[in-house]
Structures are given as C-alpha cells and as structure tokens.
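Tutorial handout. Part one gives the primary structure; part two gives the three-dimensional structure as tokens.
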Amino acid sequence: MKVLFLATYPEEGASSRLRITQFFPYLERHGVACTFRPLFDTAFYRRFYQPGATVGKALRLAALTLRRLVDVLGARRYDVVFVQREAHIIGPPVFEWLLARLVRRPLVYDFDDAVFIPSSSGVYGRLAHWLKRPEKTSSVIGWSDEVIVCTEYSRRFAVRHHPAPVVIPTVVDSTVYVPRPPSTDEVPTIGWVGSFTAAPFVVALRDVFERLGARYRYRLKLVGLGMPFTLRSPNVEVVNVPWALEREVADYQSLDIGLYPLLPDPYTEGKMGFKVVAYMAVGIPSVSTPIGDHVHFVREGDNGFFASSDDEWVAKISRLLDDPALRAEVGARGRRLVEAQYCVERQAPRLLDVLRAAAGHRARNAPTSASETTVGNGIGTMNRPPAAR
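Part two.
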C-alpha cells in the first residue's frame, strides 16, 4: 500500500513529526510505503514565523502552491492520501476538493488541535484567522473516507460531519523519550518546552516564579519561548533557549518538574496535552492547568498535579520541590501510563487500521483496472472494515 502524506510543516513542526513521520518505521515494517510531502521546506518554515519580509514570503508561498498542485495531481499513483490539518496553510480547501473529487483517491483527514475554531497568530494576528479559513474543516471532514482526531472535544465536532471519526492521541516514541539517569544537581530545574505561540501562558506565571524564588533556589528553563524573560529574584537562574529538534528530548530530560500552563478559551479547550505526555515519558511530574484532554488521564497527586490559580501553582510546585521522592514516584507512574497507552508502539497499529480501512474504500468504488481491483480487495480485507457511510 502506497500512502501520500501531506502536511503544511516539515518535521520541525510538531504536528508533522508527532502525527506523521514518527509512525513511518512501524508502517513501513507492515507493508506501507510512506511518502511525506510538506508544503513548507525547513528554511521557509523557520522564516515564515519571523516578522517582516512579507513580499518575499508571499512570492515563496506562491511557488510552493504550484508545487502543492503537482503533489495533488500526482496523487493518482497512491492508494491513500493522508492530509494532516490542511493541504495548504491559507485559503479554502481547494486541494482537498481536488483530491476527493478529481483525483478520487481515498482521503484520510487528521487534525490534532481544534482547527475548526478561529484563533489569532502571534505574528499575523487576526489576519491569520481570515486567511486560514477554519470553517473549511467541516467540508474536508465530509469529503474524507476516514477521519482521525486527537481528543474527545474534536471528536464531538467531527461526528457532525462524519459517522465514525477515530480518536488517536498525540504520543511519543517511548524508546526515544526515556527517563534520564538520576541527577546529582542539587539545584532543581523547573521547566517548559514549547513554541512562541504559547509564550503568553508562561509569562502569565511570572508572579508564581517570583514567589517561588523567595522561598527556594531553583533553575527555570524555558525552551522555545521566543522572547526575553527575566526575574527579579536572585535565587532563580533563568535559562531561556531556542527550541531545536536535535535537542528536544534532552531538553525534556533536563527538567525535574514540567509545567503546562494554559489560558481558558475555546481553542485551548481542544488541546490534547502533549507536553504532559512528554513529561511523563521522561519520568518527571507535571503541574498543568486543568484545561484540555489531559484532564482525563492525569490523576491529581498520582501521576501529575493541576493548578488553576497562582496560589495553587505555588503550592503544587512547592510540594514537589520539597519532596524529591514524591517527584520520582509521580514521574514513574506517569512513565508507566505512557508505556501502556500514550506511545507509538500502542497507537501505530490503530493508525495502520485506519489506512487499511481507507484503502478498502478504493476497492468498493469500482476501480478501473484489474491491477487496482487486486490491490484494493487485498487491503480492504485487513483488520476492521471502513466506517459505514
């Protein structure tokens, strides 16, 4: 089975890496030939979210749009097309329509965040909402043979337009995200790993960090914040570094306590809580805002902690700073949960089932050649039948 994977971002983008490419080794071992075609190359991805150079970006985006058209027209060579979030970052779903109505290959549509809800960009502001056209999500869902979502929140939206969306959480490769050896550093490290789009959530905890600095000596490590950040307290060493793909796992492993703050709005309600999964995978406890899907798998005081106010943030982090043994126990329980459910090893077979089900649609849709009939029928008999339409 040959599958074409389309996404906006290259592997540096978390959605492409975590929802697509980390599954390739498993899929290829099970007979799936994977082709990944991101809209952005690495250089343009890094430049796109930097202020300025608007004309140059527009010209490059136009060139990439033509390349995407070539990708779509060439999709006839594949048994299934998998679209992660969107085939193009702006505009109506022209390429998805072409895939579904002109190229007529089985379409799998996957989205992790609540992309159907308008949101603003840290660089492009409300213009991003107008250009990205979040209302297109319902159309693409309706055209798709199979739909994958990340949370129950998104499933409730998707089921309005598709009879059987599948929930596959965003997970880690548990052979890569592993606990670090015990640290001998006497100064504990509290930290956060993310991107500049989530910087306001971290900045909102400034008073919490100052209050903790009045009681403890600790290190605050912020990865990917994308802006300067300082504290008045001399007891706190602030380490503010850019995110880097080759250092991502090591950055998670360098922490003793992981933070996942959010501010309430409809978009953040649709978050799955991947940061919490990553903290669990490397065996450290987390303190998080109880917003999003992780409220269903984090058990307060057992494998993580929740905080809704500054006082709660201070209290929960203080408890963990005071008790290294508690940090180890909570982190170990989180690691066991990842191994049981939130890892590639557990979720990759479910993704394979979805791809096989989508390929089964091709077999039933009157293929035009004997070779297509053979391949389609063979794949369509595997595992589970596709969703009834």
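Part three, for discussion. The CA atoms of residues 150 and 387 lie 18 Å apart. The first strand starts at residue 2 and ends at 7.
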